Each structure stands twice: as structure tokens, then as C-alpha cells.
Write the C-alpha cells for this entry.
Amino acid sequence: MKDIYRGTLVRLGSESPEVMAKAFAKWDRDTEQHRLADSDPAQLWSEKKIKEELEKRAEDNSKSFQFSVRTLEDDKLIGGVGLWISSWTHSDAWLGISIGERDYWGKGYGTDAMRLIVQYGFLELNLRRITLGLHAYNERALKSYQKVGFQLEGRTRGEGLRDGVRFDGLYMGILREEWLEKNS
Ligand SMILES: CC(C)(COP(=O)(O)OP(=O)(O)OC[C@H]1O[C@@H](n2cnc3c(N)ncnc32)[C@H](O)[C@@H]1OP(=O)(O)O)[C@@H](O)C(=O)NCCC(=O)NCCS
């Protein structure tokens, strides 16, 4: 039986709220990382506040499946990835990922983590589809998601406004049967 937490470059892990809060506090200082991964205004939360937020979220984990991302070569914590069930009835979940350590962008670590979380969604959670959203200017994310098998399903024109420039939002999805066809 395959190890569903282990890819070719990374593994999915579990961290204490202290470890994750320290990492998020560091990654949030990277403005580009924030603007790639998030729509909310940038804010610098203390480690204490992030830890409290993580603990609050962990209280109801029936719909949330969150993992850290660690490299296989030296077990370095480089990011986080997760699925949020939008509906058990319809077997649909939203996916979110951010490789917070910028030295690991564009080297396949995020795409490897994507492959693992999608596999987890279809093999462990028996999902019917997985959905995600991204900013249209995030070309690397778009290419990464297409490599994993996501298809572009929608574009919301002028969804966001940053530095006085409006930008579009993109929505992508992958269906269980498409993934099975590619991966069995
Ligand atoms: C988005 C992310 C998950 C992608 O994972 P990754 O492992 O870095 O992606 P890859 O290295 O597989 O690169 C994907 C593709 O983008 C291309 N690419 C790399 N850097 C790029 C750049 N700056 N601009 C455009 N394309 C780029 C690569 O060439 C690759 O295509 P190829 O395999 O055909 O050559 C990861 O970079 C990340 O988390 N970034 C920071 C936060 C973020 O963007 N989160 C996503 C929010 S929706």
C-alpha cells in the first residue's frame, strides 16, 4: 500500500500550533507571498494571535484537513496545504496551498504537495470534485494546477484591486473521474 503522505520532493506533515504560528508569522512578512496567496489586506499578526486562531480552527476539524509541507531531503518546513469540505452531501471541497519559503518556489515542491493533497481528497475523503481559486496574475500557480489536472472553470473580471489596478479571479476544478483516469 502506498504512503499517501509522501511525494517525490515533499511529505505532508502535522505541526503543533506553536510551530505553525512561528512559520506563518515569518511567511506573512513576505509581501509577495501574501499577495500571491491571499486577497485580504496584509496584516502582521503576532505569533500569539496566529496560534490562538489556529487552535480555534482546530476545534472543529470535521470539515477541515490541514497539513504542513516538509521537504524530503532535509525535513524543512516550507509551507501548508489543506482541504475544506464545502459540502459532504455533494462531496466537494476547496483547496488552499502556500509554499511560504520563497527559495522553494518554481522548483516543483508546491506541485508535488498539490498532487498529494488531491490524492488525499480523492482516495481518503472520497471527494467527487475539488475546487480552488487564484489571482489571474499568479501564472506559476495556474501552470502548477494545470499540471496536476485542474481545469479552468471561471473568471471573475476585476475581482480585486491592488496598487490601483483591478485584477481578475480564476476558478478551477478537478473531477474524481478525471483524476482517476490520469492516475490509475
Ligand atoms: C503556486 C505554487 C503552489 C506552485 O508550486 P511550485 O512547485 O512552485 O510550481 P512549479 O515549480 O511546479 O512551477 C509550475 C510552473 O510554473 C512555471 N513557473 C515557475 N516560476 C514562474 C513564474 N515566476 N512565472 C510564471 N511561471 C513560472 C514553471 O516553469 C512550471 O511550469 P513547467 O513545469 O511547465 O516548467 C507555489 O509556488 C506557491 O505556493 N507559491 C507561493 C504562494 C502561492 O502562490 N500560493 C497559491 C495561491 S492560489
